[in-house]
Design a protein that fits this description.
By secondary structure, the chain is of the alpha/beta class. The chain has 13 helices and 17 strands. The chain is elongated, with a radius of gyration of 24 Å. The structure holds nicotinamide-adenine-dinucleotide. The site of nicotinamide-adenine-dinucleotide has 26 residues, from helix 2 and helix 8.
Length: 447
């Protein structure tokens, strides 16, 4: 999922806009040197292979080209054109084929980037871990709660580096937000809101079927693996997000980014105790299993979180942290901190029912008891990533660095599993038309 960067001109306008609104404004373009992806660590070269070189796999390879301490040494994909597209994306000829297993047998491979459809994450990741490889696995970590725990246990049993691919966890804007949140400047944050809304067929996964797609150019059997068996169906292969057998709809596709960003900024690393969803399928009635509007309210430790994704209105992407002292809003790759006016104020509204005499006395006493407040509010602060900023490159660089140093990553199997569980709870609540609760002891969702 791409987050738009602002241009320098947008950024200057934004600072001026905040100043016009009455508060002092400070706009900071975050420092490109934070793009560790441009430099690499300068140490060992990480030799990696990519499994799944479709839409995301190719994007990952385009970003991985910028990360100098990693080198692609092989790819695998079930669809012939995607194999070629992967090599094109990286700009290098390496061995490719349909079967990923021979890649895992290679002793010269350190790490694997997994970008297959969600229902295959568990199979592919378990095979990678059993072969002793470190793994970057695309989001959402799991297709089911059981898959998530099987993967978590395997990562820990094999003592491997494992990073889930919600790239905003390595995004410099989210890092800044996390720093501000941790400083306590927002005051107590009890409510967090997020949405990703778009209004186009592509935004609702109605992807075109490539003209050469067929049962000959695609290994359909391997795509299904242990999903319910059915004849070759290109709609299911290319639009797998729409179907429960392979994807998780809006929750697994888009909530997971909002949840990962929320967990990263707030430091909440837990499954929600409760989720309640509503929504509807009104426009994209093309045989899909999932709604095109999903709204979920979550109870997290210390905060209520409200998310929605709408495929019928281009409301954009935003996460807002509402604190007692300030509001922090992240919109695309721009972050704004707006202070709350917490200066003491004399009562106004309810004095409408008081007599002039009583009102005067109250106000005189109030002003006598309260010294003049500070003349102005704190500054509205804005931070943005530079134009062209690529958080996926930073996320890959972070993974390669961990493969080299063996230092833990933030978006590990526990973090990724928590975000995925919240996605599954949203869907369970929607489909069962009931509240979904998380049973930590039983590691299951109750609806
Ligand atoms: N982080 C992000 O912003 C982001 C964006 C898009 C997709 N994703 C995630 O990336 C993953 C892939 O999504 P996509 O949009 O690229 O889907 P896609 O259908 O375009 O690509 C998936 C590819 O995986 C291949 N594949 C499936 N099973 C395989 C196997 N056993 N061996 C080899 N190849 C196999 C398929 O042939 C296909 O080409 C999903 O988990 C998705 O949720 C993440």
């Amino acid at each position: 999922m791409k987050t738009p960067s602002m241009t320098r001109r947008d950024f200057v306008r934004l600072g001026a806009g905040a100043a016009v609104a009455g508060a002092a404004a400070r706009a900071t373009l975050l420092d490109p040197p934070a793009l560790a992806a441009q430099t690499g660590t300068g140490g060992r070269t990480i030799r990696f292979v990519s499994i799944g070189t479709g839409i995301r796999g190719c994007d990952l390879l385009r970003s991985a080209r910028k990360v100098k301490n990693g080198v692609l040494v092989g790819t695998a994909d079930l669809y012939d054109m995607h194999q070629k597209a992967g090599l094109e994306a990286y700009g290098k000829n390496v061995p490719t084929g349909r079967d990923y297993r021979p890649l895992l047998d290679r002793k010269d491979v350190d790490a694997v980037v997994v970008a297959v459809s969600d229902h295959l994450h568990r199979h592919v990741v378990l095979d990678c871990l059993a072969a002793g490889k470190d793994v970057y696995c695309e989001k959402p970590m799991s297709h089911t709660v059981a898959d998530g725990f099987a993967m978590l246990e395997a990562v820990q049993a094999n003592k491997r580096i494992f990073q889930v691919g919600s790239q905003r966890v390595s995004n410099i804007v989210y890092k800044k937000a996390r720093e501000i949140y941790a400083s306590g400047r927002l005051g107590e944050v009890t409510y967090i809101e997020g949405h990703t809304d778009r209004n186009s067929p592509s935004g609702a996964w109605v992807y075109p079927i490539p003209p050469d797609a067929s049962a000959e150019t695609i290994d359909w059997k391997e795509f299904l693996r242990d999903a319910p068996q059915r004849p070759y169906d290109p709609v299911r292969f290319f639009r797998w997000r729409c179907f429960k057998d392979y994807g998780e709809g809006l929750a697994g596709d888009l909530f997971v980014h909002l949840l990962s960003g929320m967990q990263y900024v707030s430091g909440i690393n837990a499954a929600p105790s409760r989720a309640q969803s509503s929504g509807s399928l009104t426009h994209f009635k093309d045989g899909r299993d999932f709604p095109d509007l999903l709204v979920t309210l979550y109870d997290y430790p210390g905060a209520t979180v409200s998310l929605h994704c709408n495929q019928n209105n281009a409301g954009g992407d935003q996460t807002i942290f509402y604190g007692k002292e300030a509001t922090l809003a992240i919109s695309g790759n721009t972050l704004t901190v707006t202070p709350q006016d917490t200066r003491p104020q004399p009562e106004g509204y309810s004095l409408n029912g008081w007599t002039a005499e009583a009102k005067k006395q109250y106000l005189n006493e109030w002003h006598a008891a309260h010294p003049a407040p500070k003349a102005s509010l704190g500054e509205v602060e804005t931070y943005a990533a530079p134009p062209g900023y690529d958080d996926t490159a930073d996320h890959i660089a972070n993974f390669f660095r961990a493969v080299e140093t063996r230092q833990h990553v933030t978006e590990d199997e526990v973090f990724g599993n928590h975000a995925a569980i919240a996605c599954h709870m949203a869907n369970d609540s929607y489909f069962h038309r009931n509240v979904a609760t998380w049973d930590e002891a039983a590691k299951t969702i109750k609806v």
